[in-house]
Amino acid sequence: MSANIVRVILEVPEDVDEQAKEIARTCAHEAAVLSLWREGKLTLREAAMDLDLSYHDFLDLLAIKGIPVVHGGEINREAIEEASRRLANSHQ
């Protein structure tokens, strides 16, 4: 798969320090990756790699941002409850 480059240009006042510019750049990059992931254009692993995060750290980021991991469809509550029961039983 060949990669394309998307550039985001943000004009800021001249008196904005370099640290603030870097924070803005990082946030813009993160927002772009999350947007592409939400649209199904990146897999979880691709998005995590693009942000230099592990798979689990990317899942943590989604949780922090309040972004559901599952897109559309119904959540299988029975499967979740069964997994919770098995996990609880394995710790006894």
List the helices and strands and how they pair.
Elements: H1 18-38, H2 44-50, H3 55-65, H4 77-90
Return the average pLDDT rounded to an integer. 85
Question: Strand count, sense and closure of the main sheet?
Answer: none
Shape descriptor: elongated
Oligomerization status of the protein chains: single chain
* Residues in helices, as a percent range: 55-70%
Rg over CA atoms, rounded to whole Å, is 18 Å
Integer count of domains: 1
N-C termini distance: 47 Å
Question: What's the helix count?
Answer: 4
Number of strands: 0
- How much of the sequence lies in strands comes to under 5%
Briefly note the structural class of the backbone.
mainly alpha
Structure description:
This protein has helices at 18-38, 44-50, 55-65, 77-90. It has 92 residues and is mostly helical. The chain has one domain. α2 packs across α3.
In short:
The protein has 92 residues and is mainly α.
Key attributes of the depicted protein:
mainly alpha; 92 residues
